[in-house]
């Protein structure tokens, strides 16, 4: 039961402190509405346009590619952990250790190649390039 | 108080996370928020897996957590793609807007 | 001879082929399909004779051709499976019947050449197709080795009779007669069907013969005293037997389902000959003979058969007395004669019944074909009062018709005498111990007088005296195809009695009761299906007046005397140059007889006064309550469907909410049942 | 036979062939991006699917998964992460057949589409996932295979990028799918927490060794969440909400693909998980009730919702979508009818139904594809009088619909009949209720199926149509599916034997 007290206390404190600070600052701060305060912060430069600019679709493509390939590397870790042990052990042959991971990487490479060939990593095509690609 | 004995706290934590995610799904109308909420739910599962891997003393759960993360990333990738075409067609990422098909 | 039996299916198959050929190509064939029919029935006749010879040489056949359903079944006697098959049973009885049927069918086909083709009828392919199918059905029925198969072809026979009676479908009366025949026999067949189901569910088998037959199973059940469906075994056998008998009464035109037969005269006369002599009507009696072992186990059922038979014999004979239409007379004589057969069967006289069936087939076919010949002579005039004096103008027709009439009246030595006498003798000896049977016997005996009377009234009115109309003066001529069948059948009517000269055998001690030997397994036989076995099963006691011979002579003398008396009465009344009606002497009875004892009227009343309101009520119930419920259900379903689909709002957030809600509901229900929250 | 001599991992050949085909498609597309050589792409996909089918059939014929003397036994792979047994091969066949049909049909349907190679490679990837699902024997592999199926499916549904319906369908499918897979993973984590294992046999062993004592609640919740995941994949209530929209909005061949193959794959893992990992008796003691009860409820509700909602639809495709939900309810009977000491009959019947369904439902959706190809419109009225212009296809449609309704003597009747007798033979009150629901819903389904037949064959066309084209690929696929729906009838003996044997093997 005393475990619960600790947890409960933590939760309580965790809630109370931010809420209390927000309450205090609400009570203490002067209220001076001013449009400049709502302006976009651009490191002191004069802001040009709003925050809601449309990014080029290429950003998304690259981000997605990065995301996927980056996360796939996570799957290399468990393999890497057992790799040395497996090499030293006589029970498994080298093909059995290397094979699956090579196949995995090959599949990733095929994917990358496909993405490349389909222009996913081609940066910022000019309209003329787009025309010529069609 | 060993961690192994306190596995129920992790379950509570994960359940809390899961419910927050669910709450987000039920209340948010922005497709991206929807995705984030799903991520929360998935991570709730990950917490469970890792905690129980420790509790049971095997690595199955941890490895599965890795897979979950990878798949979650893939899911987000596909999801973002769909949200992009959603925006292109409906000019919005509000998930309640597309209702051309119903009943 | 084993090999011969492998051709048995062909007996039935030939007419089927003829049916198909006549239907498909009849139009293009020279005789519109007649030749195909003649060839097919000739082939059937030939094969049937081969079968007869095979049985005579001591072989029988019982085999399954096709097994169309096998299943587990829980039956009342404990057998745990049931098979529905098509099979063939050739024993003395069926071999004999095959020959009779195919012979008559063959002759009818030949006769049709003259009667139908010669008279320039249209629609002949349809006619010959009908005849072929009719013959096929009847032959298959005869070949059947189990009750269900028999039932199927029994029904097919009924269908064919419908088609053929209604051959002249453009007239007003023919279609109505066809419908009547179909409906009345169907009414009997309902009981038959229920009987088939009852027997199947009781014994788990529908076989006629062998260890696996329902007859044997019933025997075992009676011996063991097994309770069947809450009844004693004998009672149950009686009930099921009587249910099957319903079909027999319908088809064999026994009282009270005989009304269709006189109307069936609307069909071509050849069809009448086929119906009366060999197929439709004979099917009923044949069925009784086929499963005689079953009836033999129930004295009650036998008594009912005998009584119905005796009553029908008298009942129909009296009506035949006042008819003017030559075919009508013959129709009532048919009903009456089948009454005799039923009487014979009912008193345990299996041989006598079959004997009369055979003889009747010959002489009734003869009489009908003779009548057909007369009708051709008379340019399709059927009223006997418009005939007269045909004796000299058509000698062949006259002499053969006379032979048939003598056989029908039961004048010695024509075939009819021998078999009718045997039926009456069997009834008498049983009747001496059983008052019910005695009453049946008395009615049968009395009917002999009427038979003699109406038969000769018909002969005298038709052939004797002076021609009463112009057409009788100058009759149409008839060809060989009409004469040939008449001659063949005339000879048979005269001689067929030789098959079983029981009185002569008893008097002289000669072994000349061939038919009895035949049916008793002197030649080939199937275990349990012999006269001998049946005789042991029948529980009737037999009595004699002083001695067997005396009884026999007494009975024979009595019936012969009555027949002759009838004939003489007819002679006195009608064998004069200008016969007049004597109906006035009958007084009020005339109207009753003329109206067929108001049988049609009360049956029509039953249909219109009782069944129709009932049907209307049922219809109203169906229209309002049933349809209302059905429509209500469909409306409710569609409305429900309309509501259900509204769940699908199209908003994905709602889906997620509903999904979670559904999931939680499931969790709650299961948790509640599984006690998770306790 | 020669299967012996091959290394163990070749047991997965039907799935691996599909994977290789997908890679081959990527390679083709990488070599010549934006080429629209439809024949090559569709040909490669169909060939791959057929090769997969051939290998699976060969395996079954060679006796893989069958015990006894001439059987080769079950092939266990990667410490039991995969298992190739009769049931796996059976469903691999279903998936391969449907994939082949859809590939052939897509040749015409997707004729004007820009992203040909992507379409086919996604299709084959999804098929790979389904094929893998059939053999997956661990919650890990199941989840991966599930996602491998789902992710390409989302993309496929939304592949008509400029079509609002398609995009909306994809979005809804994706969102519900993401939610469901999150629930599923959470369920997996709970089951793992209760037992300490993810491999199905190991879970069963753990349950029997009382490892999970005290975790009954977690286990129960986990199992329920797993059911949720399967319910999503099989489009069962309450996880069915995506189905009507996804099937309606997606390209029709994809609807066919999802509603047949994907559903079948969903069922195979449900069958495997619940028969292998959660033995009724032990699990029942732990969680306090038989999990079959959940399936009883789901089966009844699913078939009722599906059929009732289908009854009043105006659009043909949406009607088929709802009917597909109804059929999921029928197939759920296979799980609802399991008992401690049997149930192979009813589960075999469900497997048969899924096979037959693979043909008749695919065929029906392909007819819709054909109608969309012609551009005749989407509602029942638009279909009026189509039989005048295209009697062959409409005749095939009649076969599909009557088979779906369960009219004898078509294939659909027999599988439903087996389901019905199977449910009756279990004999419990709840199963009798299920059987009654089956009958009532089948009767209702006849109403809306015959409505379509009536529209096509009897009603007069509202507008004057020119002669309709006869695209080879679509026609071939439809006619083949129709022939199979009919031919399955005489072939039902071996099919039912295989299905029941396969079910008996896993129970």
UniProtKB/TrEMBL annotation, chain A:
| Stretches that traverse the bilayer | 6-28, 59-77, 97-116
Q: Where in the cell is it found?
A: Membrane
Q: Which domain of life is it from?
A: Archaea
Query: Where does this chain mainly localize?
Result: membrane
**Gene3D superfamilies noted in UniProt:** NADH:ubiquinone/plastoquinone oxidoreductase, chain 3
What does the UniProt keyword field contain? Membrane, Transmembrane, Transmembrane helix, Transport
Q: Name one GO cellular component term.
A: NADH dehydrogenase complex
An example Gene Ontology molecular-function term: NADH dehydrogenase (ubiquinone) activity
Give the family this protein belongs to, as stated in its UniProt record. Answer: Belongs to the complex I subunit 3 family.
Protein name, UniProt field: NADH dehydrogenase subunit A
Task: Please give the organism.
Answer: Natronobacterium haloterrestre (Halobiforma haloterrestris)
Automatic annotation (TrEMBL), chain B:
Q: Which family does it belong to?
A: Belongs to the complex I subunit 4L family.
Keywords, ordered alphabetically:
Membrane, Transmembrane, Transmembrane helix, Transport, Ubiquinone
Q: Which GO terms describe its molecular function?
A: oxidoreductase activity, acting on NAD(P)H
Q: What biological-process terms (Gene Ontology) are attached?
A: ATP synthesis coupled electron transport
Record-linked HAMAP family: NDH1_NuoK
Q: Which organism is it from?
A: Natronobacterium lacisalsi AJ5
GO CC annotation: NADH dehydrogenase complex
Location within or outside the cell: Membrane
What is the name of the protein in this document? Answer: NADH-quinone oxidoreductase subunit K
UniProtKB/TrEMBL annotation, chain C:
Which cellular compartments is it found in? Answer: Membrane
Q: Which GO terms describe its molecular function?
A: NADH dehydrogenase (ubiquinone) activity; NADH dehydrogenase activity
Q: Name one Pfam family in it.
A: Proton_antipo_M
GO cellular component annotations of the record: membrane
Keywords in alphabetical order, please: Membrane, Transmembrane, Transmembrane helix
User: Primary place of residence?
Assistant: membrane
Question: What's an example Gene Ontology biological process for this entry?
Answer: electron transport coupled proton transport
The answer on whether this UniProt entry bears the keyword Transmembrane helix reads: yes
Residue stretches making up the NADH-Ubiquinone oxidoreductase (complex I) chain 5 N-terminal domain: 80-128
Task: Please give the start and end residues of each transmembrane region.
Answer: 6-26, 33-56, 93-115, 127-144, 150-169, 190-209, 229-250, 271-289, 301-322, 329-355, 361-378, 398-418, 438-463, 484-505, 552-576, 655-677
Q: What is the membrane topology here?
A: Multi-pass membrane protein
Cleavable signal peptide: none
Protein name, please? NADH dehydrogenase subunit L
UniProtKB/TrEMBL annotation, chain D:
Main localization of the protein described in the UniProt heading: membrane
Entries under InterPro entries matching the protein: NADH-Q_OxRdtase_suN/2 (IPR010096), ND/Mrp_TM (IPR001750)
Q: Name one GO biological process term.
A: ATP synthesis coupled electron transport
PANTHER family associated with the record: NADH DEHYDROGENASE
GO molecular function terms attached to this record:
NADH dehydrogenase (ubiquinone) activity
Topology term for the membrane? Multi-pass membrane protein
- Ranges of residues in domain NADH:quinone oxidoreductase/Mrp antiporter transmembrane: 136-434
Protein name, as recorded? NADH-quinone oxidoreductase subunit N
State if Membrane is listed as a keyword.
yes
Alphabetical list of Pfam families matching this protein: Proton_antipo_M (PF00361)
Regions that span the bilayer = 6-28, 40-61, 87-107, 119-136, 142-161, 173-194, 214-232, 252-271, 291-312, 319-338, 350-371, 392-411, 417-444, 474-492
Any GO CC annotation of this UniProt entry: membrane
Q: Which residues form the signal peptide?
A: none
Sorted UniProt keywords? Membrane, Transmembrane, Transmembrane helix
Compartments in which it is found = Membrane
């Amino acid at each position: 039961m005393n475990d619960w007290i600790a947890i409960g206390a933590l939760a309580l404190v965790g809630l109370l402190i931010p809420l209390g600070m927000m309450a205090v600052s609400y009570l203490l701060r002067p209220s001076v509405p001013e449009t400049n305060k709502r302006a976009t912060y651009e490191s002191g430069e004069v802001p040009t346009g709003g925050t809601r600019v449309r990014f080029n679709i290429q950003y998304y493509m690259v981000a997605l590619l990065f995301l996927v390939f980056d996360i796939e590397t996570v799957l290399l870790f468990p393999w890497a952990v057992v790799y040395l042990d497996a090499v030293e052990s006589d029970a498994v042959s080298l093909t059995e250790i290397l094979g699956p991971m090579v196949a995995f990487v090959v599949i990733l490479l095929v994917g990358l190649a496909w993405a490349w060939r389909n222009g996913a990593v081609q940066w910022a095509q000019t309209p003329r390039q787009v025309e010529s690609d069609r | 108080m060993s961690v192994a004995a306190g596995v129920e706290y992790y379950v509570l934590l994960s359940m809390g996370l899961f419910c927050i995610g669910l709450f987000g799904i039920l209340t948010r109308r922005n497709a991206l928020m929807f995705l984030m909420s799903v991520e929360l739910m998935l991570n709730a599962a990950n917490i469970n897996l890792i905690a129980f891997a420790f509790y049971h003393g095997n690595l199955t759960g941890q490895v599965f957590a890795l897979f979950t993360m990878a798949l979650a990333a893939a899911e987000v990738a596909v999801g973002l793609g769909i949200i992009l075409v959603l925006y292109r067609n409906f000019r919005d990422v509000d998930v309640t807007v597309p209702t051309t098909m119903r009943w | 001879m084993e090999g011969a039996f492998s051709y048995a299916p062909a007996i039935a198959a030939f007419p089927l082929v003829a049916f198909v050929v006549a239907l498909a190509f009849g139009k293009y064939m020279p005789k519109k399909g007649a030749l195909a029919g003649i060839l097919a029935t000739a082939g059937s006749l030939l094969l049937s004779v081969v079968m007869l010879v095979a049985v005579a040489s001591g072989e029988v056949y019982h085999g399954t051709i096709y097994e169309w359903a096998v299943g587990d079944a829980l039956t009342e006697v404990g057998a745990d499976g049931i098979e529905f098959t098509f099979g063939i049973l050739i024993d003395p009885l069926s071999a004999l019947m095959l020959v009779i049927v195919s012979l008559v069918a063959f002759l009818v086909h030949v006769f049709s050449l003259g009667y139908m083709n010669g008279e320039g009828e249209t629609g002949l392919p349809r006619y010959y197709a009908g005849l072929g199918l009719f013959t096929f059905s009847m032959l298959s029925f005869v070949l059947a080795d189990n009750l269900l198969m028999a039932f199927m072809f029994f029904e097919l026979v009924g269908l064919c009779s419908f088609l053929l009676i209604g051959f002249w479908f453009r007239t007003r009366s023919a279609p109505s007669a066809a419908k009547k025949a179909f409906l009345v026999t169907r009414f009997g067949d309902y009981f038959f069907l229920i009987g088939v189901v009852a027997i199947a569910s009781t014994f788990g088998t529908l076989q006629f013969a062998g260890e696996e037959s329902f007859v044997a199973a019933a025997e075992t059940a009676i011996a063991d005293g097994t309770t069947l469906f809450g009844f004693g075994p004998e009672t149950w056998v009686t009930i099921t037997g009587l249910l099957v008998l319903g079909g027999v009464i319908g088809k064999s035109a026994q009282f009270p389902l005989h009304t269709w037969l006189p109307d069936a005269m609307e069909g071509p006369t050849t069809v009448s000959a086929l119906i009366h002599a060999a197929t439709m009507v004979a099917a009923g009696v044949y069925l009784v003979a086929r499963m005689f072992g079953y009836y033999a186990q129930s004295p009650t059922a036998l008594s009912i058969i005998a009584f119905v038979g005796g009553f029908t014999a008298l009942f129909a004979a009296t009506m035949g007395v006042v008819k003017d239409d030559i075919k009508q007379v013959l129709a009532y004589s048919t009903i009456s004669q089948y009454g005799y057969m039923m009487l014979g069967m009912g008193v345990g006289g299996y041989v006598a019944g079959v004997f009369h069936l055979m003889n009747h087939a010959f002489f009734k076919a003869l009489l009908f074909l003779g009548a057909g010949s007369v009708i051709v002579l008379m340019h399709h005039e059927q009223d006997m009062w418009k005939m007269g004096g045909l004796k000299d103008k058509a000698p062949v027709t006259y002499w053969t018709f006379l032979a048939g009439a003598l056989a029908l009246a039961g004048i010695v030595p024509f075939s009819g005498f021998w078999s009718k006498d045997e039926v009456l003798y069997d009834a008498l000896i049983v009747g001496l111990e059983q008052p019910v049977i005695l009453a049946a016997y008395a009615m049968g005996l009395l009917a002999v007088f009427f038979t003699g009377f109406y038969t000769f009234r018909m002969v005298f009115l038709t052939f004797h005296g002076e021609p009463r109309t112009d057409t009788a003066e100058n009759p149409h001529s008839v060809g060989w195809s009409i004469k040939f069948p008449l001659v063949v059948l005339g000879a048979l009517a005269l001689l067929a009695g030789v098959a079983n000269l029981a009185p002569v055998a008893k008097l002289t001690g000669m072994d000349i009761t061939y038919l009895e030997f035949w049916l008793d397994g002197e030649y080939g036989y199937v275990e349990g299906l012999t006269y001998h076995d049946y005789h042991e099963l029948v529980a009737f006691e037999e009595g004699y007046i002083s001695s067997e011979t005396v009884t026999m002579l007494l009975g024979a003398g009595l019936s012969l005397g009555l027949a002759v008396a009838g004939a003489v009465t007819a002679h006195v009344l009608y064998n004069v140059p200008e016969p007049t009606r004597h109906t006035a002497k009958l007084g009020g009875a005339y109207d009753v007889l003329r109206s067929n004892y108001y049988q049609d009227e009360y049956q029509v009343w039953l249909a219109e006064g009782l069944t129709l309101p009932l049907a209307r009520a049922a219809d109203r119930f169906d229209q309002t309550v049933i349809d209302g419920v059905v429509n209500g259900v469909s409306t409710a379903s569609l409305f429900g469907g309309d509501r259900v689909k509204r769940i699908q709002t199209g908003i994905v957030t709602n889906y997620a909410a509903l999904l979670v809600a559904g999931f939680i509901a499931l969790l709650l229900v299961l948790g509640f049942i599984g006690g998770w929250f306790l | 036979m020669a299967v012996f001599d091959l290394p163990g991992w070749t047991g997965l050949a039907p799935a691996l062939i599909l994977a290789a085909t997908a890679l081959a498609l990527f390679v083709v597309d990488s070599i010549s991006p934006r080429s629209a050589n439809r024949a090559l792409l569709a040909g490669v996909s169909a060939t791959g699917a057929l090769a997969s089918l051939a290998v699976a059939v060969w395996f079954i014929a060679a006796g893989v998964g069958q015990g006894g003397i001439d059987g080769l036994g079950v092939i266990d792979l990667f410490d039991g992460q995969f298992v190739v047994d009769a049931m796996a091969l059976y469903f691999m066949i279903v998936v391969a057949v449907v994939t082949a049909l859809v590939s052939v049909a897509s040749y015409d349907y997707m004729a004007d589409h820009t992203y040909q190679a992507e379409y086919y490679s996604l299709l084959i990837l999804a098929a790979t996932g389904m094929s893998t699902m059939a053999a997956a024997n661990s919650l890990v592999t199941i989840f991966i295979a599930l996602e491998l199926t789902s992710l390409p499916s989302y993309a496929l549904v939304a592949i008509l990028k400029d079509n609002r319906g398609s995009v909306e369908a994809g979005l809804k499918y994706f969102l519900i799918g993401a939610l469901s897979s999150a629930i599923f993973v959470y369920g997996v984590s709970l089951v793992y927490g209760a037992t300490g294992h993810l491999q199905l046999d190991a879970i069963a062993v753990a349950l029997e060794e009382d490892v999970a004592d005290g975790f009954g609640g977690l286990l129960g919740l986990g199992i329920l969440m797993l059911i949720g995941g399967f319910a999503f994949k099989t489009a069962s209530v309450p996880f069915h909400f995506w189905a009507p929209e996804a099937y309606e909005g997606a390209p029709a061949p994809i609807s066919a693909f999802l509603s047949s193959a994907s559903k079948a794959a969903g069922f195979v893992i449900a069958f495997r998980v619940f028969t292998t990992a959660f033995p009724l008796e032990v699990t029942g003691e732990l969680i306090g009730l038989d999990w079959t009860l959940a399936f009883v409820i789901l089966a009844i509700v699913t078939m009722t919702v599906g059929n009732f909602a289908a009854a009043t639809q105006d659009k043909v495709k949406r009607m088929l979508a709802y009917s597909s939900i109804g059929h999921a309810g029928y197939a759920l009977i296979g799980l609802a009818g399991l008992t401690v000491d049997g149930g192979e009959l009813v589960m075999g019947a469900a497997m048969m139904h899924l096979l037959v369904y693979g043909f008749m439902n695919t065929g029906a959706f392909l007819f819709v594809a054909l109608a969309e190809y012609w551009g005749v419109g989407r509602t029942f009225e638009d279909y009026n009088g189509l039989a005048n212009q295209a009697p062959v296809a409409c005749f095939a449609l009649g076969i599909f619909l009557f088979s779906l309704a369960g009219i004898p003597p078509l294939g659909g009747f027999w599988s439903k009949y087996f389901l019905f007798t199977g449910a009756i033979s279990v004999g419990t009150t709840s199963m009798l209720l299920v059987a009654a629901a089956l009958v009532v819903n089948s009767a209702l389904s006849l109403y809306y199926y015959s409505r379509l037949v009536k529209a096509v064959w009897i009603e007069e066309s509202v507008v004057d149509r020119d002669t309709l084209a006869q695209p080879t690929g679509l026609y071939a696929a439809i006619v083949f599916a129709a022939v199979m729906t009919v031919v399955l009838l005489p072939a039902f003996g071996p099919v039912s034997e295989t299905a029941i044997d396969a079910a008996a093997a896993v129970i």
